[in-house]
Design a protein that fits this description.
Elements (H helix, E strand, L loop, with lengths): L3 H11 L17 H16 L3 E4 L5 E5 L8 E7 L12 H16 L8 E6 L12 H7 L17 H7 L17 E9 L4 H5 L3 E7 L1 E10 L3 E2 L11 H19 L3 E3 L3 E4 L5 E2 L2 E10 L2 H22 L2 E9 L3 E2 L2 H14 L5 E4 L5 H4 L5 E6 L15 H20 L2
Parallel strand pairs: 3-4, 3-5, 5-16, 6-15
Antiparallel strand pairs: 1-2, 2-4, 6-14, 6-16, 7-12, 7-13, 8-11, 9-12, 10-12
Helix pairs in contact: 1-3, 1-11, 2-3, 3-11, 7-8, 9-11
This protein binds glyoxylic acid and manganese (II) ion (2 copies).
One manganese (II) ion (MN) binds next to loops.
Length: 409
Amino acid sequence: MINGDRLWNRLLELGTIGKQPSGGITRLSFTKEERAAKEKVASYMKEAGLAVYEDAVGNLIGRKEGKEKDAPAVLVGSHIDSVYNGGMFDGPLGVLAAVEVLQTMNERGVKTKHPIEVVAFTDEEGARFSYGMIGSRGMAGTLSEEELVHQDKHGISLAAAMEEAGLDPGKIGKAARRKGSVKAYVELHIEQGRVLEQANLPVGIVTGIAGLIWAKLTVKGKAEHAGATPMPIRRDPLVAAAQIIQVIEQEAKKTGTTVGTVGQMQVFPGGINIIPERVEFSLDLRDLDAAVRDSVFLSIIERAKQIGNERNVDVAVELLQKMPPVLCSELVQNAAKEACRQLGFDVFTLPSGASHDGVQLAGLCPIGMIFVRSKDGVSHSPEEWSSKEDCAAGANVLYHTVLSLAMTA
Ligand code: GLV
Ligand code: MN
Ligand code: MN
């Protein structure tokens, strides 16, 4: 069994880095908070007896050699960046549980056939650049220099942020792993939903990860005086945007499975007595079925354009990214099921509505995930919570899953 106290204490300790007065955690990629978190995790990796290094996209990696040095590695990890004002479990649980698994193996003198690497992926959340999964894209060999043009709120590009962090954007290709060099990727994560809680179970095995679309919508109208411009002749982009947001809700609701969210909005120039000239807002749209999601997206665009015509404003839609839904491999699911049986947990499977680095790695190796019960299903919020016992239960399932993947051919 893993050491649940050690895991919990590290979760609490890491949870102090980037802590806001509001109680939430903000640890955006390539910031001093993220650097401090990486240094802390690197110190845990060293305590666990791992060889620590960072790759060309800033993924923090701790490696335990296998009996067969050149055998494909089993990767286990998650991320330590956060959303704005997030919680202390989304990401850190998976990284710290992976460190705990390897520390327990080393303390017991467990030698595996395959090398095992703990990975804390760079920028999973995409909070800073509205893009995300930078580290896993880099490792999968799918990250191109052109993608590094995405900018943060202050106009700093991903490439510039990487340079500031001491990375060379021209060398991101070096982070790519060769096909065949990775046996599997497994991640422990909080569920971020209510399914396990309702089933009264501490852990579950993930069947697949929903695919997301991220887009930016820009509505342009005409800036005019708020007092002197009669209502009938206005070209107000914000009122059009409000209508489009209603459409997003209606179209997503129609399918019963799709979820659509507008989480960012900026109004320009932003004066109390000026009809806005321009409004920009984000769209996050997800479904486990790519065809359903895509048809909702098309309906939203069509209705948005109609609204633009009716209100005499321009509506532009920029696709930021589109990820396919991804199935978790039988290899990892079966290893996790067997781990649950060994530990006396019910074997329970569920899909993931949230996205994860496994989506990017699925082209490189078999992937899989294990979920831990989330209190009230809340996450991306300071209220995110999973109990110490459930975190330890998940880490124990992870231990046996990783052991089986790393032992067998
Ligand atoms: C990451 O947490 C995401 O699903 O957006
Ligand atoms: Mn996460
Ligand atoms: Mn998240």
